[in-house]
Amino acid sequence: MKNRLVIAMLALATVTGMYSCKQEKKETVKTVEEKHEDHSGHKENTHHEEMVGDLSFKDNKIANAYSHYIHVKTALVHTDAKEAKNGAGMLVKALSKVENAGKATDFAKEIEGTDDVEKQRKAFYGLSEVFTSLIDGQIASGTVYKQFCPMAFDFEGAYWLSSEEEIRNPYFGDKMLKCGEVKARLN
């Protein structure tokens, strides 16, 4: 009887998830590390695919920290704990130059300090909450999208920031890549 109840609850959660996140089909995502050519013809590695594009910040230190935040987010989208750890290390360094970044630094250090992607995702949730406050009023041009997944962390839900409107969920990766919605546009 208990097993049937558990199976029924899991089936209901799965069906609910598919409808609430409007997942039509599984989609492949580019690898985290891509090759790009600079003006001299030299190829360099970039660590994240989501570029900040037309987005600019009033403070270059915030811009630098935000680019590393996106690096971590993209690594989590790809469920790449090693790359998330690497990006978090760079984020810690960038945040050391930003005023009032203490809590953000603590969360970035948590991500850097573990190889467990689920622990990294939990810390990323905290980082995202603090980072939203950190960039508030700092956007000179462009838009940052505050996105939300209602199913993250056993249906508690969780936010993250993105430079693109398209949903790429860092809490589930390719399991539920498009689960979420834009809740706010920061500009």
Account of the protein in words:
The chain has helices at about 1-20, 60-75, 80-95, 100-110, 115-135, 150-155, and strands spanning about 35, 45, 55, 140, 145-150, 160, 180-185. It has about 190 residues and is α+β, with helices and mostly antiparallel strands. It has a domain at about 35-140. Strands 6-5-7 form a three-stranded antiparallel β-sheet. A two-stranded antiparallel sheet has the order 1-2. The protein starts with a helix and ends with a strand. About 35% of the residues are buried. Residues about 1-20 and about 20-50 have low confidence and may be disordered.
What's the gyration radius in Å? 17 Å
Task: Please outline the major beta sheet.
Answer: 3 strands, antiparallel
State the total count of DSSP E strands: 7
Query: Termini distance?
Result: 53 Å
Category from helices, strands and their pairing: alpha+beta
Assign an overall shape: globular
Which blocks of ≥5 consecutive residues have pLDDT under 50? Answer: 2-20, 22-51
Number of helices: 6
With strands numbered from the N-terminus, the spatial order across the biggest sheet is 6-5-7
Order of helices and strands: HEEEHHHHEEHEE
Mean pLDDT: 79
- What percent of residues adopt helix (DSSP H or I)? 40-55%
Portion in beta strands: 15-25%
For this entry, give a set of tags.
two-stranded antiparallel ribbon, 6 helices, globular, alpha+beta, disordered N terminus, three-stranded antiparallel β-sheet, 187 residues
